[in-house]
Specification:
The protein is α/β, with parallel strands linked by helices. Helices cover about 35% and strands about 15% of the residues. It has helices spanning about 5-10, 25-35, 50-55, 75-80, 90-105, 195-205, 230-245, 265-280, 295-315, 315-325, 340-345, 390-395, 405-410, 445-465, 475-490, 520-530, 545-550, and strands at about 10-20, 40, 110, 115-120, 125-130, 135-145, 165-170, 185-190, 210-215, 220, 335-340, 350-355, 360-365, 365-370, 375, 380, 395-400, 430, 470, 535-540. Strands 1, 2, 3, 4, 5, 6, 17 and 18 form an 8-stranded mixed beta sheet that branches. Strand 1, helix 2 (about 25-35) and strand 2 form a beta-alpha-beta unit. It starts with a helix and ends in a 7-residue tail after the last helix. Residues about 550-555 have low confidence and may be disordered. The structure holds 3-acetylpyridine adenine dinucleotide.
């Protein structure tokens, strides 16, 4: 639809427009509706679920344990939902989110298949007009961008894809009815979390698999298992205490981080600690010692442990050497969690190609040209990641004060106050935005904290008759400086990761998430609220008094 046609489209009015119906959007709708606000959720997908709606590739599952990766806002929901495995599969997460949408009668306020293309502030009465590609326009005082951090898939800039005669897929926009690779020769490009999860399963099905690796990653085994009745019962009973713990933890995970330095213990003790954490499976490895992400020597002890593990798992020493991560600190790229990834390279029908030795030059009609060799394949899977954290926001033409766009405001990298608000964009909030712990944390814990904080802020503002508030430039500058200072004190900035936007050509190199920890961040947000939303200024919104008088009694969902 053209911009002119969009401007002509009839307008509907609500208190809040929420963009996205994943974990964040669903929770925002439930929370705000419960406070008596009218809400419309606009979702591009044809179902709810966000990341779990799109990422249907084989082996897709969460690397946070199921009991910790669920909503806590309803004790009944926690009691009712029976997780089947330690790490939830995509199908189960999607079923869970569908259940949440039904259980809390959320669907009546969600419009599916609506891609938001613009959000324009009308400064005079401080309202947002949000337009969809499908031709609707919604007006709202408040705009909540629950657009996800990893929701804009990236294809590599390799020539020739349009000539490829086989089928190709991106892990993050996988066909809903699945793909059958039986009898096919398949190439997977990319060895981040999505590649590492899908490669073992694709290898099992395909007639042959080529793995095209540019950067080897550190991966820890999941040691996944089905949850028996007894274990599930115990986890459910412990849920409240676990969640309380995660809220003040560094990463939003239930496994306590060890406060010791990796360098303060003997080699034997260190080895025992790594071995214990390794056997716990999954992300608790990150908390093995306190200084792994701030001290290069400490970090190297973890890297060496991983190298030994990889060598022990892979039969062919040459392949094992290629799989060893090099040139960046352990953990500076997202640590992956796998089930049988390294072991897959012991199969005779799986070949690892190191693109550092020979580059991927082009896609040909019959396959991939690596160096001077053409490898014929029937299908290509791109596990090549996302335009992370800012991609979904930049894809929308968001215009704040003086018609200034978010793209302009963030041309040198994202700038936010607390990862929640942007100066010059009154009434707009981002959930798990840049400048908040976000992708460095258990997303559900961070999403809940953000949604509840935003809902409190909106309630507070409405009670005072201001209706809208806006981050000040000074508060934003100070927060950005703090976020950068914390990042600079870590090893995160030493890898070319998507945390820094390094995977997207031309994207400003800025470390986007806040590395100060979930607990410390929550405390800061709470202090800001307790001080009357320090760093925000009230924006008088004409019509606020009238609108409040018109409002019907709160609806309790
Ligand atoms: O994406 P990635 P992802 N030629 O960006 C390679 C979350 N997640 O979808 O590192 C060749 O990590 C690229 O190589 P390099 C999780 O937060 C979670 O796997 O740029 N290769 C890299 O190997 C995760 O971190 C879960 O050198 C190219 C890969 O593609 C995030 O999503 C599961 C290339 C991309 O890896 C993103 O993970 C899945 C090119 N031109 C995802 N361009 C769980 O919960 C890129 N690559 C478990």
């Amino acid at each position: 639809m053209t911009q002119d046609a969009q401007q002509q489209a009839p307008q509907q009015e609500v208190d809040v427009v929420v963009v996205g119906a994943g974990f964040a959007g669903l929770h925002a709708l439930h929370e705000l509706r419960g406070r008596g606000l009218s809400v419309r959720v606009l979702e591009a997908g044809h179902g709810v679920g966000g990341t779990w709606y799109w990422n249907r590739y084989p082996g897709a599952r969460c690397d946070v344990e199921s009991t910790d990766y669920q909503f806590s806002f309803s004790e009944d929901l926690v009691r009712e939902w029976r997780w089947s495995e330690r790490y939830p599969r995509q199908e189960e997460l999607l079923r869970y989110l569908d259940h949440v949408a039904d259980r809390f009668d959320l669907r009546r306020d969600i419009s599916l298949g609506r891609r938001v293309v613009s959000a324009v502030l009308e400064e005079e009465d401080v309202t947002w007009t949000v337009a969809t590609e499908q031709g609707e326009r919604w007006r709202a005082r408040w705009l909540i961008m629950a657009t996800g951090c990893l929701s804009v898939p990236r294809l590599p800039m390799v020539p020739g894809l349009e000539d490829f005669r086989g089928d190709w897929y991106h892990t993050a926009s996988w066909p809903a009815d699945g793909v059958d690779f039986t009898g096919e020769r398949v190439a997977v490009v990319g060895t981040g979390s999505s590649g590492i999860q899908s490669i073992p399963l694709i290898a099992e099905q395909a007639a042959g698999l080529l793995v095209l690796q540019r950067t080897a990653n550190y991966s820890v085994p999941a040691f996944d298992h089905e949850l028996g009745e007894e274990e599930l019962e115990r986890l459910q009973q412990d849920f409240a205490a676990r969640r309380e713990f995660t809220r003040s933890s560094a990463l939003g995970l239930a496994a306590p981080a060890d406060p010791r330095s990796a360098l303060a213990v003997s080699e034997e003790e260190r080895r025992t600690q790594y071995e214990t954490r390794w056997r716990m499976g999954g992300l608790p490895m990150i908390g093995a010692f306190a200084d792994l992400m701030v001290d290069r020597a400490a970090n190297e002890t973890a890297a060496a442990f991983f190298r030994d593990k990889i060598r022990a798992k892979v039969d062919d020493p040459e392949t094992a050497e290629k799989l060893l991560p090099r040139g960046y600190p352990w953990g500076a790229k997202r640590v992956c969690v796998d089930s049988g990834y390294y072991e897959t390279f012991n199969r005779s029908d799986v070949t690892l190609i190191d693109l550092n030795e020979q580059p991927l030059r082009r896609i040909t009609p019959r396959g991939v040209l690596v160096g001077e060799t053409e490898h014929e394949v029937d299908a290509i899977v791109f596990a090549t990641g996302f335009d992370a954290m800012t991609g979904a926001l930049m894809a929308i033409d968001i215009r704040g004060r003086d018609g200034r766009s978010l793209r302009q405001a963030w041309s040198a990298g994202p700038k936010t106050y607390l990862g929640l608000a942007v100066a010059g964009f009154p009434g707009l909030f981002t959930v798990t935005g840049p400048g908040s712990p976000s992708v460095l944390s258990n997303m559900v814990v961070s999403i809940e904290q953000h949604v509840e904080w935003i809902a409190d802020a909106i309630s507070w503002s409405r009670e005072r008759g201001t209706e809208v508030f806006e981050a000040t430039q000074e508060a934003q500058e100070a927060w950005v400086e703090h976020v950068n200072a914390v990042a600079d004190s870590t090893l995160f900035t030493e890898a070319n990761s998507w945390y820094l936007g390094a995977n997207v050509p031309g994207k400003p190199r800025v470390f986007m998430p806040y590395a100060g920890g979930v607990g410390a961040y929550r405390q800061k947000c709470d202090e800001v609220a307790a001080a009357g939303y320090e760093g925000f200024r009230a924006v008088p919104a004409p019509g606020a008094e009238r609108r409040r008088a018109d409002r019907s009694a709160p609806v309790v969902a």
